[in-house]
Design brief:
Elements (H helix, E strand, L loop, with lengths): L12 H60 L25 H12 L4 H23 L5 E2 L6 E2 L18 E4 L10 H9 L2 E4 L3 E5 L2 H5 L10 E4 L2 H13 L9 E4 L2 H6 L10 E4 L8 H6 L5 E6 L4 H10 L3 E11 L13 E4 L2 H10 L9 E5 L1 H9 L6 E3 L7 H12 L3
Parallel strand pairs: 3-4, 3-11, 6-7, 6-9, 7-8, 9-10, 11-12, 12-13
Antiparallel strand pairs: 1-2, 5-10
Helix pairs in contact: 4-12, 10-11
Length: 414
């Protein structure tokens, strides 16, 4: 039987048109859906960002605090690892000197070793640099300055006698009686039940104007004054008044300690002047004096004074003039009948020893011990033929009270 083929069914035009319109509608709807999705995602992202902003701000603040802490902390010196750089081979010109040519040819071969050695040397120099600077501050032989150290002459060695140490009960100290009870000699007397007597062997007199004019010194030529004591302050302004010299306000004052600087209030207005002071010695004023080296300095002094100050100023190359404005004279000691009543006599200046010889020419030392402060005082004592039993300053005791304390402690044990 013959199979009949099916004829294709023709769809009406209306159906095809409906299908095409449906497709177009679907295609038109798709982009609308995409736009809505994008809007939703944007809203979600905005919410997430708004929540994350404060968290980020907090993190930024923490990071800033860490950076500030690192900056404030002291930086540590760390050894950087040497980086071996490849040295290209370069042809060098021949050198006439054979020694230099050998050095130059060997240098490129040792280039890999050289950075390590230099790194170690740099580390050692940085580590050793800090203690050296701090040690200079406590040097006693020299004075620390920005440029160099000013050498100070060491103290000479003084020989002390080996006279037997008898018990000590009475002491005569050749100084004026202290105004306050806070004094090391009062503490010494309480400690060992001693009888102390304070009696000044010298007195200071102002130099007359005639004698000062004989030195041919013009006070107004000097723009700076070095004052070593209150006595120097008194006699400097006394001489200015007697000579009718008005001290200018631009005058600079360099005082040896703070007490001398404050004592200037008796004569000038402290706040309106240029006043500099050290701790206890002239060497503390090195930096300040050097900054004013262009000025000409005036040094009011006594006829017998410490030569260390003049030697120090000469070492720094400072222009100065030493003006003798007062002098030391032996005091009248007729009220003291017998010096042998005292177990120890303490002297602090060569003028005190001269006063001892002048007031008591027939004095024989015997069992009386004599204590001296300073090499000049000790040498003057030996020149007059007396025996030195106690000396200060020494390596153990820098003060006279300390030297007396050590001697009396050993003597009173026996």
């Amino acid at each position: 039987m013959a199979i009949k083929k099916k004829k294709p069914v023709k769809t009406p035009a209306r159906k095809t048109a409906a299908k095409s319109s449906a497709k177009k509608n679907n295609q038109a709807k798709r982009p609308v859906a995409k736009k809505s999705v994008k809007k939703i995602t944007k809203k979600v992202l905005v919410k997430k960002v708004t929540k994350a902003v404060p968290a980020k701000k907090a993190a930024v603040k923490k990071a800033a605090k860490k950076v500030a802490a690192k900056k404030a902390a002291p930086k540590k010196i760390l050894a950087k690892k040497p980086i071996a750089k490849s040295t290209p081979s370069v042809k060098k010109k021949p050198v006439s000197n054979p020694k230099t040519s050998l050095k130059k040819t060997v240098a490129p071969a040792q280039s890999s070793v050289a950075p390590k050695v230099t790194a170690k040397v740099k580390l050692e120099s940085t580590e050793k640099a800090t203690p050296v600077v701090s040690a200079e501050k406590f040097v006693k032989v020299g004075v620390k300055t920005k440029k160099q150290l000013v050498a100070v002459a060491p103290q000479p060695v003084i020989e002390v006698s080996n006279f037997p140490k008898h018990k000590v009960k009475t002491i005569l100290i050749s100084q004026p009686k202290p105004e306050n009870d806070k004094n090391p000699y009062y503490d010494l007397a309480k400690k060992y039940n001693l009888i102390e007597t304070f009696r000044q062997f010298i007195k200071i007199e102002g130099l007359p104007v005639k004698d000062f004019r004989a030195q041919r010194i013009d006070i107004l030529e000097h723009k700076a004054v070095i004052l070593t004591s209150r006595m120097a302050v008194d006699h400097y302004f006394r001489m200015c008044n007697e000579m009718r010299v008005t001290v200018p306000e631009s005058m600079k004052y360099f005082c040896i300690n703070e007490a001398t600087a404050y004592y200037l209030q008796k004569y000038i207005q402290y706040r309106k002047r240029k006043i500099f002071f050290g701790h206890q010695t002239i060497q503390d004023l090195v930096d300040v004096i050097r900054k004013n080296r262009e000025e000409k300095f005036l040094l009011p002094a006594a006829d017998v004074h410490k030569e260390q100050i003049c030697e120090f100023l000469d070492a720094i190359d400072i222009k100065y003039t030493k003006a003798v404005m007062y002098r030391t004279v032996s005091a009248d000691l007729s009220d003291i009948k017998n010096l042998n009543e005292y177990d120890i006599l303490a002297f602090f200046t060569p003028a005190g020893i001269n006063s001892l010889k002048q007031n008591f020419p027939d004095f024989k030392q015997g069992n009386t011990r004599i204590a001296c402060f300073g090499a000049a005082t000790a040498n003057t004592l030996k020149k007059h033929g007396y025996r030195l039993d106690i000396y200060a300053p020494n390596p153990k005791n820098p003060s006279m009270s300390g030297a007396l304390d050590e001697y009396i402690r050993e003597a009173n044990k026996r």
